[in-house]
Amino acid sequence: MTQNIISARFGEKNAHTLDGYQKLGGYGTLKKLFGMKPDDVIEEVKRSGLRGRGGAGFPTGMKWSFIPKNTDKPKYLCVNADEGEPGTFKDRLILELDPHAIIEGIIICCYAVGIKTAYIYIRGEYDAPFARLDAAVKEAYKAGLLGKNIHGSGTDVDVVIHRGAGAYICGDETGLIESLEGKKGQPRPKPPFPAVIGVFDCPTVVNNVETISALPWIMSNGGTAYAAIGTEKSKGTMLFSISGMVERPGVYEGAFGVNLWKFIEDSTGGVKDGKKLKAVIPGGSSSAILTADEARNVNLDYESIAATGAMVGSGAIMVFDEDTDMVKALEVVLRFYAHESCGQCPPCREGTYWLYEIVNRILKGKGRPEDIDLMLSICPDMLGRTICVLADSAAIPAASYIKKFRPEFEAYINKGNPPERMLHPGGINLEARAL
Amino acid sequence: MAHVSQTLAKSGKPFAYSPENEQKFKELLPKYPTTRAVILPALWLAQEQDGYLTVEAMEYVAKRLEQPAVAVFAVVEFYTMFKTEPTGKHHIQLCRTLSCWMRGYEDMQKLIERKIGIGPGEKSADGVFSFELVECLGSCGTAPMMRMDNRYWENLTVDKLSRILDACKQGRDPASEDTQ
Ligand SMILES: Cc1cc2nc3c(=O)[nH]c(=O)nc-3n(C[C@H](O)[C@H](O)[C@H](O)COP(=O)(O)O)c2cc1C
Ligand code: SF4
Ligand code: FES
Predict the structure, then answer these.
(1) I need a surface site. Which of A34, A279, A351, B88 has the fewest CB within 10 A?
(2) H or E stretch covering B94
(3) Using the beta-carbon criterion (under 8 Å), do B138 and A166 form an inter-chain contact?
(4) Using an 8 Å Cβ cutoff, are A47 and A223 in contact?
(5) Cα B92 from Cα B119, distance rounded (Å)
(6) Out of B41, B93, B136, whose CB is closest to A84?
(7) What is the mean pLDDT of chain A?
(8) Which whole number is the average pLDDT over A114-135?
(9) In a domain, B16, yes or no
(10) Is there a single domain that holds both residue B73 and residue B137?
(11) Cα dist. B161→A245, A426, B70, B157 in Å?
């Protein structure tokens, strides 16, 4: 089922401007908001069941309630617009097409939690999204929607846009905080959690762009209305970025609880060029992979996807057709994590490096028979032992690709070269490509 | 690690913000409770001014923010978008991650290598192009894609990329070739 909450204004002309946004009812929740007690706003968000859309799926209202109430320190909001999880491209759309919804969401969060300054951490490569967001923030200041005493409410909210500079790890909430403080983006051990000691040693909320953008709808329609959409544990809708070998890749909004493959097929028209489906990644490259059968028989919601060992994550769905070489695919994934490991934790630094090295030699036809089990034995040692979950994000897909598509790995090792029929979708035999 | 250590040598050119950037720099300071937090935005200003960061520029940023120079060097080394050498006039960042791979980024790489004669990490002798392979740029729905001239070029095909590169070579605005 398609349902437009986050994407409601995506097709509207000039919705990215203040005028366009306001004509569509934008900033309409502020009057109601400022008439409410901040704690009641948190309750409303709790009632909605909204969960974080950045990857971890943590309940948003609960996260806000962890912020200490009686503190002399300033509190901060960090809006995570680093969007780096491979396969994810939905925050970019919100930033470009509906930036004022982010600002309205920021005002809601700041009012509820008692925050006066919000930093939007946007990835450095997002030039066009930055320009739209920057223009929207300037417009909002000019209209008195940001700054001191917003619309005479006594509420002050400042927004600062902070550009990243090319490091996936800064998408992790504590990596982001370190980066915002002007350091290398190396994640911090938790506890202490950002809610207690976050950026500049102060209590901090970190929320994803999409999470923040859902707030205006929740405030105007009520948490109960939001919670009525979706399933028991997966409330509301989510933006799904669907890419790979489908007819019409793109961002599609959907309510939770529908069949995964049906949702993909209905949205995108199914596998490109009438090919057969081979596999689906439901939630970003950090997720375990699903076989075609699994994808056809699972529902798209947090609990059903989790039951398969995969995750909803950031809603990044990637579709593999019958021609996709799974050994090469895993090499691409592992190269990413080996490249992006910040190097602090030995199981991550060494584990991602070795998994990549081994899959790379298998791919080059130099794999040894014991290599497959060697990889499988490295993976468990990377789980739950590191400062952030990047190590897990490499080990989980690695183990799942190997377990579900083992014969392909064996074929490389036994034949000493890629099987003849294995072409990558571009049509070039992998053998011919120098790595 | 995010990127390979580069040996840093002084360029011999002194650095100072242009009057325009000086103004922007002054506006940055009150936005953060610490001066250290201004390192990234201050480096961005410096890099936008010169196209890359000289040792002098990094030392200048450190001095202006009253930070030790090593704090600034460490940041520059960590983040892949900070460049310590001049890039080509058109700096190509071609995405090599999962969806772009499935949709054939390798064909685009081959085209670049054939047409311009440079591989990843290289710069053309005439200084027109430099080329790097990067990880997912958040544009997987329009793969294969690249970033060049501070914008995205999406749904690339051999023909389209070929026309874009030709326009750059001939000193024309490649934007007119951004059609299917
Ligand atoms: C390695 C790594 C990368 C991450 N990248 C992002 C990202 O690009 N964007 C994002 O919103 N969250 C990302 N996250 C999740 C954040 O740590 C955090 O959970 C999220 O921003 C919280 O917001 P939410 O509760 O609204 O989802 C990443 C986490 C890890 C471990
Ligand atoms: S798990 Fe990896 S990326 Fe995360 S902090 Fe440790 S070394 Fe860095
Ligand atoms: S995989 Fe290339 S933009 Fe995401």
Answers:
(1) A34
(2) strand B90-95
(3) no
(4) yes
(5) 11
(6) B136
(7) 94
(8) 98
(9) yes
(10) no
(11) 21, 15, 40, 6
Give the ipTM of the model, two decimals please. Answer: 0.95
Distance CA A318, CA A228 (A): 28
Residue position matching structure tokens 């700096």: B91
Report whether pLDDT(B110) > 80: yes
For atom 8 of ligand 2, the residue with the nearest CA is A342
- Model confidence at A8, pLDDT cuts 50, 70, 90, reads very high
Q: What is the CATH classification number for the domain harbouring B41?
A: 1.10.10
| CB-based contact B138 A169, cutoff 8 Å | no
- Last residue of a domain, which of B28, B43, B78? B78
Assign domain A237-321 one CATH number from 3.10.20.600, 3.40.50.1240, 3.20.20.150, 3.40.30.10: 3.10.20.600
Mean pLDDT of B143-168: 97
Query: So what's the architecture of A18-227 in CATH?
Result: 3-Layer(aba) Sandwich (3.40)
Residue B97 lies in a domain: yes
Question: With contact defined as beta carbons under 8 Å apart, do A253 and A7 qualify?
Answer: yes
Cα A388 to Cα A190: distance, rounded to the nearest angstrom: 9
Give the pLDDT of residue B8. Answer: 72
Domain over A326-415 is classified CATH 1.20.1440.230: yes
Q: Are A410 and A403 in contact (CB under 8 A)?
A: no
The structural domain count of chain B equals 2
- Kindly report the nearest CA distance between residue B79 and chain A, in angstroms: 5
**Is the Cβ pair A88, B138 closer than 8 Å?**
yes
Contact between A216 and A31 (Cβ < 8 Å): no
What range defines the domain where residue B47 resides? 2-78
Contact B61, B55 (CB under 8 A): no
Cβ neighbours of A118 in B, within 8 Å: none
